[in-house]
Amino acid sequence: MTAPLDTEPAAAPAAGPGDERSAYRGVLRYALAKAGGAVLSIGMVIVATFFVFRLIPGDPAIAYTRDVPLSPEQLDLLRHRMGLDKPLMQQFLDFVLRTIRLDFGTSYEYKRPVIDLIGERVGPTMVLVGTGLVISVSLGLWQGTRAAWKHGSRFDRVSTGISLVLWSVPTFWLGLLLLMVFAAGVGPIPGIFPTRGMEDIDAPDGPLYLLHVAHHLVLPCLTLVAVVYAQYLLVMRSSLLDEIGQDYVTTARAKGLRDDEVRRRHAVPNALLPTVTLVFINIGFVVGGAVSVETVYSWPGLGLLFYEAIKGPDFAVMQGTFIVVCTAVIIMNTLADVVYRVLDPRVRSA
Amino acid sequence: MSTTGIAWTRRRRALARFWRGYRRQRAGLYGAAILVAAVVLALLTPLVTDPLGLDVTKATGAKMGAPNLDFPLGTDESGRSVLLMVLWGSRVSLLIGFMAALLSMTIGTVVGIAAGHFRGWMSAVLMRITDWFLVLPSLVLALVLAAILGGGTTTIIVAIGVTSWASTARMIRSQTLSVEARPYIERSRALGAGHWHVMTRHVLPNVAPLVLANTTLQVAHAIVAESTLAFLGADSGQVSWGGLLRGSYDWGAATSGAWWYILAPGLCIVVVVMAFTLCGRALEAVLNPRLRGVPR
Predict the structure, then answer these.
(1) Which residues between 175 and 234 in chain A have a beta carbon less than 8 angstroms from any beta carbon of chain B?
(2) Which of A127, A342, B189, B230 makes a 20 to 30 Å CA pair with B30?
(3) Residue B204 CB neighbours (<10 A)
(4) Which domains does chain B have, with CATH numbers?
(5) Hey, what domains does chain A have and what are their CATH numbers?
């Protein structure tokens, strides 16, 4: 995976014009190694998916034609067409080759290619998860910074307390509560947000459409943010607390820098590093949370598709969404490692 | 005094020291109190209530009735008492929480110690697998496992346990590495200690406190995971807190204003999970020397 031609020793931390190039090469080598690891991980997902889905009790051919009674000859023909009569190794190879071509078979439920269904649902999920991530990261980092800088203060205790409570709340339950209070309305409180979906049938066109979707987005997004941002808060808080104890912060203070200048220019940039990884690692978590949120609010994303597939059960759709989601998460994590390495040269390839 | 006598005295002293430390963690004490109460209630439930009330055909209350004197937490869509179901649900939720955490900690500890103790390809393979599990969205993986293995309490325990051990394994591995770097391990090796002896007699006792603290946090995680799985349709076939919330969603409790049906099981989850979290953090603060004196 790494370039074997490069026999130079690892870049020394001395300054110099030639040094930049070898540092750059180090990052490149690191990125290549990480990419190789990611490919291996994705391969493991595909292999695991094949074998896990072979564990399903019952006959996939019968599952596919659940409602239609078929004669044994017709079933045999179907099995043949689904490739179920081939040896296991052959089935496995077929599966891998089809997966690489993004061919996840046909949905039992919709009788349409799974990849088309996934394609339709990616957009709404990205809108929900993307908005949720931006809000929760900025809120969590800001609040975590303030809490750590004034640790022991009331603000610190309150926000740590809130984040502990939110950490304990199941995403879907918070969703149900918000749905009940702000969408259905409780007692004198009228419902002010839509209860389900991303758009109504009478959705307006043009720029108003965005407002319409945003209106639908408020509650699902709020649910996601509430559950996720607490983690950023806690991590930012503890990593900034670590930095505050370091000598360079004392030095910066001793030079007579103003307090918020020490914070903004010295401590926070260093404390930000661990949270960078967390943001990416959390994407997997957010995807999991999105399944619950999308289910509660019937948000037409990948999570809802996955949920409906489990309820079916529609194994072809489950299989396809699982592979796509896992692959996306693995790619994100690999990016995180590389970005981290670029930001923090102290990290040597591990 | 015999050697076992010395060992026991030492253990008793360590326990007393631990308790002195833990007593100073006020939040941890609250958490422990709540946990004891929850476990006692769950154990007493069969003695003081009648499981027949869980039978849909024997239900006596009004459909979706608001709380009243007969039904302090109201009734569900078929007239069963929500309080009764919450009590019985606590048994399943706690059982799955404990068992799944136990399974996850066992896998995590074994993999972590093995990956830290053995060098070379074995460690590399184990860490590759650990990283893989760490990255994959565990809820999605657990849902797939639960859906494929079919319903049942064991399935849910396995699905949660198998998907949540990776972070433990990482932590235990790094702890193992630092323990094995100590000189007395080298001495023990020189005296002829084998892999098994080093791992079980020297490494395991040293990582055990961390394992304990982490187990408490894992139970919290497992209870949330169980409720989410049940809500998303992968339930154990028994009344659990997540299953109740599933029922409330299916019967439109949120849109019809049946707040008691949503509030009661959810609050139980939050309170118990918080109690576990508080205990776990308190244990960590007492047992992990690196955290001593750090404002948390």
Answers:
(1) 176-177, 179-180, 183-187, 195
(2) B230
(3) 16
(4) 16-51+75-291 (1.10.3720.10)
(5) 24-56+102-347 (1.10.3720.10)
